[in-house]
Amino acid sequence: MTRRIADCGMSTNDCCAATNRREACTSKAMNGEPGSLLFSIDLHNRATIRGKEMIRMYRLLIVDDEPSIVEGLAQMISSHELPLKEIRFAYSAGEAQEYMERALFDIVLADIRMPRISGLEWIESVRKAGWKCKVIFLTGHSDFEYTKKAIQLGVNDYLLKPVDDEEIIGSLQRAIHELDQSLDEMMSISKARQKLQVSNDNLKNQILGDLLLQPRNIPPGGSIKSTLGLLEVSLDEQGDVFLALMRIDYWGERFQAADAALIRFAIHNMTEEMLEHGFHLETISLENRLIGMLVQSDSPSPRDTDKIAFIMESVQNTVFRLLGVSLSVVFRSVPINWGELGPYYRLMNEQLLHSTGTGIWMDMGGREHAAPSATRSEEPAGSVLIEQLKSYVIHHLSEDLSLDILARRFHVNPTYLSRLFKQTTDEVLSHYITKEKMNAARQLLLQDGMKVSEAARRVGYHNPNYFAKVFRNLFGMSPQEFKAKMFL
């Protein structure tokens, strides 16, 4: 008999067992055991080799506010032979967001209607953050506006409850097939073309590498122009270039150091595809783990910096999401002339050498860092950066304090910033911001004549009803009840 997922996909005994597991997980988390609050099924040990073919493995995140449905789906999906190395599930959009900030998921299976933040609202924020995971909505509501919004967000499938297990598995298989196709397109290499170009590429890499490593060995004047033209380098020696360095921190589960050329090829292809017409790119292999990139615009404009920085960060996130390879990036956000490449390369390489951790993003803009000839101060340690972040939050409570905004403000990768804050403070960044906003609101409400709506606005909440809900969740009473109690 075909089983169907409706309001509950499990028997009474299964529901009780699921509830007990969740309570046990919650208890462990309250006692300080990391990663226990949100139950997960780890399929890491499932065989990844069939014959001689490597099977790509993906991560799945299930989101629904009904524990029995979530855990029933997880158990059902794990019983099928799908290339999933991990299945995690969350009981709210907020918990799911915490997971996405710690590790990128390839597929999301989510309900639409959930308390506080709906599945549609959460996926919209996920899309705005640049995460291009495959999304499948599983819902009991066939509202046209829901369907329209889901299409706008590029959702892969929209399944209406009750739905057969086979339909869910079929939807997951289609999403996995699309992921495989995307990865194949990015990793495809023409062996014939590679053989024809290998000599030219090696020579081009040597010449461009010398520009960075040994600039004194490069003849001045027209020799550079003629050399670049002979090697079919797309860059103009008269124009300034943007310089970026990428360091491979972690090869992931599918690659190793011997695959360095393949990874560099994939990174070059991704960057080239993301760059708009009017930009030219050259990639330089500097050593086994270090990659240099030179980008030049046909028609330079002040907006080039933001465009290229966004693309470099997107490449960093995409490489990690699709290939599992972690990159640290240092980017010079001010274009430089060819004669300055050597000094700036040495300064940027030194930044990477002194940086710790993985997946780091550093923006070496002209205003943020001293010129190569000046004495450079050391990169602030993680604890110093977090103290600066806390100070910024306290002084900008009325502004947008989303993870992306804060990461750009402090010139680091969003995932790295979220992880560093948790490691340094043992607190989730979003929880810290909410707590500071509510504490500030409480002080404002103590002022005579202060309206709840005005206090909400001053701490960045433009919806008084939502503000009141968050306030009650934190302090156990509404803002009005708090004022009444304080002014008795």
From TrEMBL:
The modification 4-aspartylphosphate is found at D111. Residues 387-485 form the HTH araC/xylS-type domain. GO terms for molecular function: DNA-binding transcription factor activity; sequence-specific DNA binding. Residues 59-176 form the Response regulatory domain. Gene3D superfamilies: 3.40.50.2300, Homeodomain-like (1.10.10.60). InterPro entries: CheY-like_superfamily, Homeodomain-like_sf, HptR, HTH_AraC, HTH_AraC-typ_CS, Sig_transdc_resp-reg_receiver, Tscrpt_reg_AraC-type_HTH. Its main location: cytoplasm. The keyword Cytoplasm applies. This is Response regulator. It comes from Cohnella fermenti.
